[in-house]
Amino acid sequence: NQIKVLKTIRKMASQGYGIILTTHNPDHVLLLEGKLAVLNLSGDLFFGTQEEIMNEEFLYHLYGTELKLVHIEILNRLACLAPKL
Fold first, then answer.
1. Which end of the chain has less neighbouring CB within 10 Å, N or C?
2. Handedness of CA 52, 54, 57, 59 (dihedral sign)
3. Helix (H, G, I), strand (E, B) or coil at 60
């Protein structure tokens, strides 16, 4: 269902609607490929594009855990993955 909702959001954005989405899932940002605003626990606000903000170092400081950004060739997309527990 997440994919259905994200597809609807993308379609609405392409029709000119302004979209504000709150999520704790960095993969949603990667799937939508838009601009983002991130508020960390200290109250610092980061704003920009996915390419400007989303990197492994930023995600580590944001979530306090190691996450990997991996290009999945068969899907032709970047994904945010947690290491094996």
1. C
2. positive
3. helix
Query: CA 37, 18, 28, 51 torsion: positive or negative?
Result: negative
Q: What is the pLDDT of residues 53-68, one digit of tens each?
A: 999 999 999 999 999 9
**Pair 78, 27: CB distance under 8 Å:** no
Check the CA dihedral 13-45-63-52 and report its sign: positive
Radius of gyration of the chain (CA): 13
User: What is the rounded CA–CA span in Å between residue 1 and residue 31?
Assistant: 14
What does the alpha-carbon distance between residue 45 and residue 32 come to, in Å, rounded to a whole number?
20
